[in-house]
Specification:
By secondary structure, the chain is of the alpha/beta class. Helices cover 21% and strands 26% of the residues. α1 packs across α6. Bound molecules: zinc ion (ZN).
C-alpha cells in the first residue's frame, strides 16, 4: 500500500464530528468545513463507499446516511463505511451547484476537466478508496422532475447489475456525461448511481436507508446474471440540451421555446413518434441531442413542424424536469431505448 495522497480541498476524518447526525443539509457547513471523506471501521474491513450531496440540492442520500449512522451509533457496522460529503457550499444555498463552481459529478477521473482542484480531489478519493480495497460504491442523487427510483451503471458486469437491482428493477446504462463518480469507481469496484426520486420525500430517504443497510450486510456480490424477469434495462442513446442561445420557459411568455408544463410526466414512459414537447419558432431547432460519442444526433429524434417541437422516433425520456435552472446547469433530459442486459 502506498501512502495516502492529499488534496487541499478535502478533509479526511476517521470519526463522526459532533452534530453531523442531526444537522440539516443546509447547515452541514457548520459541522464540516468543506468536502469531507469520513472513514468508519466495520466487522468486514473492505469498505462500502457512499457519496452524498455531490449536488447540493439533492438531500435524500445525506438524510439516509444520517439515519444509517444513528442506527449504528452504539454498535459495530457490519462493514467498513467511507462516506464522501460533497458540495457542502451548494447545500447551504439549496442549489445543485453555485454559479462559478464546477459540477462535482463531472470532475471524477475520466473527466475532461482534470486540471481543476476539484478533479484532483476526486482523484485523491478514488486512489484512497482503491488503497482501502473498496467493496462497492454507491452514489446517491435526486431528480428535480417526477421519476421512479432507478439505478444507473457504466459497466456491463453481473456484479454491477446485482448492485443495481438491489435498488430497483429499472436500470440504466450510460457512458455520457463523462467524469461521473460511478464511472470512475467502475474501474476499481462494482459501482452504481442511484436516483432516489425528488428531494425532501420521506419515503425516498427510508428507501435509500434500507438499501445502504442491505449493502453493508452483503458478504459478496454474485457474479452471475440477474434473471431477465427481475430487470428492465435501458441504454441511454442521447442527452438533450436546450441550445445555449435559445431562450425558453414553461409559462407561455415570450421565448424562443415554450416547453409543455407537464413534460416530466413522460419520464420512464415510452413516447410515440409525433409527441409534442412545446412551441418553437419555425425552422429553428431549439434543442441539441448528442449520442454516447458526443455527436450531434438531433435530427434522428426531433423536428420542428408548424411551430411545434416534436419527437420523430420512439424513445423513453428520463430526468425531464420543469426546473429552468437545472435545465441550464445540467440538461433537459436523457433519451433511452430498451435493451437486454
Ligand atoms: Zn445529482
Amino acid at each position: 500500500m502506498g501512502t495516502p495522497l492529499n488534496s487541499a480541498l478535502l478533509s479526511q476524518l476517521d470519526h463522526l464530528p459532533e452534530g453531523l447526525l442531526t444537522v440539516a443539509p443546509n447547515d452541514v457547513y457548520r459541522v464540516l468545513a468543506g468536502p469531507t471523506l469520513i472513514h468508519l471501521p466495520g466487522r468486514d474491513q473492505r469498505p462500502l463507499f457512499v457519496s452524498v450531496l455531490q449536488h447540493g440540492n439533492e438531500t435524500t442520500g445525506f438524510l439516509a446516511v444520517q439515519l444509517l449512522l444513528q442506527k449504528y451509533e452504539r454498535r459495530q457496522l457490519p462493514r467498513g463505511l467511507s462516506i464522501f460529503f460533497g458540495n457542502i457550499e451548494a447545500a447551504r444555498q439549496g442549489l445543485r451547484r453555485l454559479d462559478g463552481q464546477c459540477d462535482y459529478n463531472r470532475v471524477w477521473p475520466g473527466t475532461a476537466a482534470a486540471e481543476l482542484p476539484e478533479a484532483q480531489m476526486m482523484q485523491v478519493i478514488v486512489d484512497e478508496m482503491a488503497r482501502r480495497r473498496v467493496f462497492a460504491s454507491v452514489d446517491l442523487h435526486n431528480n428535480t422532475g417526477t421519476n421512479p427510483y432507478y439505478a444507473c451503471l457504466n459497466k456491463l458486469d453481473h456484479r454491477f447489475f446485482q448492485l443495481a437491482v438491489l435498488f430497483s428493477r429499472l436500470v440504466v446504462f450510460f457512458v455520457r456525461p463523462k467524469g461521473v463518480q460511478s464511472a470512475a469507481f467502475a474501474t476499481i469496484c462494482p459501482a452504481v448511481t442511484l436516483e432516489c426520486g425528488k428531494p425532501g420525500q420521506r419515503h425516498g430517504v427510508e428507501y435509500a436507508l434500507e438499501y445502504l443497510d442491505s449493502c453493508l450486510h452483503l458478504s459478496e456480490l454474485p457474479d452471475h446474471p440477474v434473471p431477465a424477469h427481475d430487470i428492465d434495462f435501458f441504454r441511454t442513446v442521447a442527452q438533450v440540451h436546450v441550445r445555449d442561445q435559445v431562450t425558453f420557459n414553461f409559462q407561455s411568455s415570450a421565448a424562443d421555446l415554450i416547453l409543455n408544463d407537464d413534460l416530466d410526466r413522460m419520464n420512464f414512459t415510452e413516447i410515440p413518434v409525433g409527441t409534442e414537447w412545446g412551441t418553437a419558432h419555425n425552422g429553428v431547432m431549439p434543442v441539441l441531442a448528442t449520442d454516447a460519442s458526443g455527436h450531434d444526433v438531433t435530427d434522428a429524434y426531433f423536428a420542428v413542424n408548424e411551430g411545434k417541437l416534436i419527437l420523430t422516433r420512439k424513445v423513453m425520456p428520463s430526468s425531464l424536469t420543469l426546473d429552468e435552472r437545472i435545465i441550464r446547469q445540467d440538461c433537459l433530459c436523457y433519451l433511452m431505448e430498451r435493451s437486454s442486459p
